[in-house]
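Lecture 7 notes: from sequence to structure.
We start with the chain below.
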Amino acid sequence: MADSSPAPRRSAQWSSPDQTRFSDFLSDDRNSELNHKEALAKARAEHDRVRDEAVRVIRLHEHQLELQRLREQELHVLAAQRKEEERLLREKKLRDEEQRLRDLEAQSIPKLPPKPPRPPLQEAAAPQPIVNGAGPVPKPATAVEHPGIASTAVPFAPLPTPSAPQVNGHASKVTETAPGLTPTAPSPFSKSTSAVSNPFTQLTPGPAVNGSTTAAPAQEVKPAIPSAPIQPLVAQGDRYAEIHKNLKQLRAYLLEQTKSNMALKTRMGDMRREIRKSLGQLTGGKGANKQQLERIKGLLSEALSGQVPSALVDPSDYTVDKREPVEGAVHNAPQLPSLFLYLLNALAKGIINQFINECGAAPRNADPVGVIAAQMFSMKDFHWRGKSLIDILMAKFRIVCPVVFGYRGSEKTEQGRARLGWKKEGGAWITEQQHIDRMTGLGVGYASLALRDFSRSPNTNPWPPSRYWTTMASIVNTPPAEISNTQCVVLKSMIQLYEEKFIHLYGSAAIVALRRALVEFPGKAPNNTPGVGGLQVVAQMYKRDLGLDLN
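Predicted structure tokens for the same chain:
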């Protein structure tokens, strides 16, 4: 206000400026050396303080960023873990539903028995002759019961082996040298009707000696295409087991050679590893394995040409048949380099291992391996006296999967498991699931090798489809009491994924064979094992997915 007194002075509240600081600045020695040094020291100290503080702040910031990164990574891992747990739960639920579906599909209602036949109006037929008190000899499947009406042929009908005539009412036996292994008799195939051209014809039993006779058909249906009889897969004396033993001796012989042949010692191991590596690199797709094929071919050619010196051996120790020189054959000499046969053995071993290790869980992986096996053993450059040396591969098949050669056995006994190829590790049998995986891989591998179409190739199929047919017949003709789960697993893996090739090769006869293998064979099994159920499920899948009704 205009008349009010002025505000009191506040000089008492504020101190006077620091006269000392100004006096120092205005002093005469402000430019002295000592003063400059003190100023520099203070500036350096301040600089160090600022830098240390900046470093501390930076480190604190980096620490915070690291903590944030770890938290984010932890959250990401937890999210991935939850996602994986949810996926596993969904897969488990899906597997349970699929298993429930398979169980339902495997169930079936038994069919009614057929109506009893009408009593014959004619006089009772004369009893069939008894052979050594064993019972009447059955008539062949293609025999015609009434004139003018031909009965339907059964493609896998078991018939007497025509290899030797009966003497004194006793059939001649096949000698078996492998202990505890009893092969089944080879099952020739009956003749088909005129509507189905079956390339495997039935063999008529030969006349018995010393007055004993066997039943003969009154009339037979002529096959559309006559063919030669199928040879049994297991030769007399189990030659494949002998070949497998000879291959072990060959390996020991090569190791003995390496003691005095350093070139062989150095190269032999490298070549074996290259073959194993090439087999492990096989993939699906046409032309995808050309490099692997050429690499294996080059290694075999190198050993065969003698570039790596090795002793000569007689190849007949590793073949089923005794061979004579053939005109035009690439190799007619009585001996071949032992390193070449050793590498063929390594190739066969690698093929078997691929079937076992890779194809049990993923059967589709067997096809490229089967292609390589068929191509390598079909090359004429690697034949001896005009024939393939695939007996080396099949000798290993005979040991690891005897079922494809007609062997049978009970899975509840030690000897039966040995006959079926059940493997031992550390003196104990492997688990049932491991055995099933092995047989699955070997079964699909056998099909991938046997069902190859060589119609457009200049080479000859080393293991033709007729071998596949014979193997299937030897399994489905098993008596009901001797059917094993191993047989069913092998049969299922032989058929599934290769039904198209089988039908392409045999046409209508293949349809009849599939009906016998997938419907009739599991239907007569006394126990509903997983293998039996698997065969029935395959038949139902063909009906559902392919429209192929085998019932």
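Points to note: The chain is about 50% helix and 0% strand. Residues 240-385 form one domain.
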